[in-house]
Amino acid sequence: MEATGDLLMAAARTLRRRYGAAMARWEITPGQARALRVVCEAGALRLSAIADELRIVPRSATEVVDALQERGLVIREADPADRRATSVVPTARGRQVSALLEEARTTQAEDLLAVLAPEDRAALDRILRLIVEQ
Question: How much is the pTM?
Answer without folding.
Answer: 0.83
